[in-house]
């Protein structure tokens, strides 16, 4: 299946999932809120009368000492019982019930006193009793670090843990499963493919799971986590995941897919996103006035650079870039919406960023497929490299002219061949071969050498033939009648060359052959046996050529101690 088909299927699936995720309606009993800001504490009645209230549900701001929310509940039948806010770090929340401008009930809550909503990306706190007759509710959020705590806030008759939350929990659990499975693939791939990008993808996946557990509120279903810590887990995990994603792209794209400048820019951007947004995501008390803006502004250059890197790799023929484009298209779209909501430029719809969670699940799954595709490609490349190396090794160990093994192959394997029973070594040399070259030229001489090689080429595995160089050959033999078999090979040279018609005079060979059974000599290495056989060859040459000189060494068995005493 081609990369473009993967892209098409991914976009179709992502579009369907995002549409499904974003189609959930907002709660029907959400009250329309007005909001205002103050740089210090105010009495509720003074805040109601003096603050600049904005009732258009946009133009949200962060960095203020106190964010105020106003709800008109006079027209509602059932009085609200709970305040629901988006997950964020804050110092304290005050809830005030007013009737005709007078406070009739009030309560204040610290972060440890609010109840995080599992799979709800928010928290709930009970409104003070005695506010049933209130026509106005004021909520004062002190030192909020994120505008979503207010922009996604609402008053409800319940604590927000309705059946829709359970449905959301099931969806988030499925997405978590989508994120966990690629981790198993990464572990298996890394056992075989020791590539850095596999570890980076695993780290990116772990960070995205952390984001899902934190910002999605999934962790609250299993352990009790204070809302202030829960509010830090998501942003920090997301920033780490974005940085690891950039490093993954840097390592995963083919070496020639990006220019040197783009590679450097991509790596620096990834490191930037792991430092600045992570620092802002910690939401320290000293950074309350600017950390939310810093967090989202720090991401503004990241997304365009990542997208530019992937798009610039596609015209260069990068197969990996197609997978990344398919994986990151829904993530980029959902991240842009999250960025605008986090900066207060888009009103929040309440609840977790389901569309972003779905996009992350799609992204990690497609990238896992991309790693599998790269795994197969790398394995094919390595198989070709091994085949090529073996071919070169074969060429290095074979004589180019005759196709026989060469001296290197004999020396490298001699110990193993001796252990396999090759105890007889014969050295053959064509007689007066210089005359053949002088009369028929080197081309004619080469044909004679090939014909001689064919004559001694063994028909079975008990005889091995090697060309040592020039007109000299070596035979290794094992089994019975090795002398006779070697002699037959020597004579076959003359017969084969005569039958070929290459020359009109006989071409003979001389041979020296030595058999050294195991244990006959303490040192029976190649040089030892070769020198013995070579000496016998020259004795055959001196005796008139076209003959064989042989030597068989006997195994010496020392007598036992008792035998020596008896002999004495």
UniProtKB/TrEMBL annotation:
Would you indicate the residue range of the signal peptide?
1-21
Alphabetically sorted, this entry's keywords are:
Membrane, Signal, Transmembrane, Transmembrane helix
Q: Can you provide one Gene Ontology molecular function annotated for this UniProt record? A: diguanylate cyclase activity
What InterPro entries does the database record attribute to this sequence?
Answer: 7TMR_DISM_rcpt_extracell_dom1, Diguanylate_Cyclase, GGDEF_dom, Nucleotide_cyclase, Rev_trsase/Diguanyl_cyclase
Q: Its catalytic activity?
A: 2 GTP = 3',3'-c-di-GMP + 2 diphosphate
Which CDD domains does this entry report, sorted A to Z?
A: GGDEF (cd01949)
Q: Which SMART domains match?
A: GGDEF
Domain GGDEF as annotated: residue spans: 421-553
Q: Which domain of life is it from?
A: Bacteria
**Protein EC:** 2.7.7.65
Task: Work out whether the entry's keyword set contains Aminoacyl-tRNA synthetase.
Answer: no
One Pfam family here: 7TMR-DISM_7TM
Regions crossing the membrane: 169-193, 205-227, 233-253, 265-282, 294-314, 321-342, 354-372
State the NCBIfam families in the record: GGDEF (TIGR00254)
Recorded protein name is: diguanylate cyclase
Q: What organism does the record attribute this protein to?
A: Aurantiacibacter arachoides
């Amino acid at each position: 299946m081609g990369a473009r088909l993967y892209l098409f299927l991914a976009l179709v699936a992502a579009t369907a999932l995002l549409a499904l995720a974003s189609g959930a309606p907002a709660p029907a009993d959400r009250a329309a809120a007005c909001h205002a800001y103050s740089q210090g504490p105010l009495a509720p009645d003074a805040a109601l009368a003096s603050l600049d209230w904005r009732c258009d549900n946009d133009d949200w701001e962060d960095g203020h000492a106190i964010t105020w929310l106003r709800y008109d509940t006079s027209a509602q039948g059932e009085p609200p019982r709970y305040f629901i806010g988006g997950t964020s770090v804050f110092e304290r929340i005050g809830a005030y019930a007013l009737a005709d401008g007078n406070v009739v009930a009030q309560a204040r809550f610290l972060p440890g006193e609010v109840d995080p909503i599992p799979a709800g990306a928010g928290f709930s706190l009970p409104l003070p009793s005695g506010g049933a007759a209130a026509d106005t509710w004021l909520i004062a959020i002190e030192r909020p670090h994120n505008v979503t705590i207010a922009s996604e806030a609402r008053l409800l008759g319940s604590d927000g843990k309705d059946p829709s939350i359970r449905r959301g929990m099931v969806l988030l659990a499925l997405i978590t499963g989508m994120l966990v499975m690629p981790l198993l693939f990464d572990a298996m791939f890394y056992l075989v493919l020791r590539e850095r990008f596999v570890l980076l993808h695993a780290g990116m996946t772990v960070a995205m799971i952390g984001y899902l557990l934190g910002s999605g509120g999934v962790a609250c279903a299993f352990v009790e986590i204070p809302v202030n810590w829960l509010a830090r887990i998501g942003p920090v995990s997301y920033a780490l995941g974005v940085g690891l994603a950039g490093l993954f792209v840097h390592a995963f794209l083919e070496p020639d897919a990006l220019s040197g400048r783009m590679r450097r820019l991509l790596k620096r951007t990834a490191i930037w996103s792991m430092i600045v947004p992570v620092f802002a995501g910690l939401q320290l008390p000293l950074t309350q006035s600017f950390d939310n803006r810093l967090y989202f502004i720090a991401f503004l250059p990241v997304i365009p650079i990542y997208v530019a890197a992937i798009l610039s790799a596609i015209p260069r023929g990068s197969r990996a870039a197609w997978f990344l484009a398919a994986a990151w298209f829904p993530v980029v779209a959902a991240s842009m919406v999250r960025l605008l909501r986090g900066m207060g430029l888009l009103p929040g719809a309440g609840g977790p960023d389901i569309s972003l969670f779905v996009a992350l699940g799609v992204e990690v799954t497609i990238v896992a497929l991309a790693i599998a595709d790269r795994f197969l490609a790398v394995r094919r490349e390595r198989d070709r490299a091994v085949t090529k190396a073996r071919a070169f090794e074969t060429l290095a160990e074979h004589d180019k002219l005759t196709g026989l093994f060469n001296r290197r192959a004999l020396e490298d394997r001699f110990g193993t061949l001796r252990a396999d029973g090759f105890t007889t070594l014969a050295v053959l040399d064509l007689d007066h071969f210089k005359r053949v070259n002088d009369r028929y030229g080197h081309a004619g001489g080469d044909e004679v050498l090939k014909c001689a090689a064919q004559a001694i080429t063994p028909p079975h595995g008990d005889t091995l033939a090697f060309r040592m160089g020039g007109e000299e050959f070596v035979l290794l033999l094992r089994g019975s009648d090795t002398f006779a078999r070697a002699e037959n090979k020597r004579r076959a040279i003359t017969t084969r060359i005569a039958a070929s018609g290459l020359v009109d005079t006989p071409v003979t060979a001389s041979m020296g052959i030595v058999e050294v059974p195991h244990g006959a000599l303490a040192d029976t290495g190649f040089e030892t046996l070769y020198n013995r056989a070579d000496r016998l060859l020259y004795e055959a040459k001196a005796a008139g050529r076209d003959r064989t000189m042989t030597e068989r060494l006997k195994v010496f068995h020392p007598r036992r101690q008792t035998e020596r005493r008896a002999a004495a």
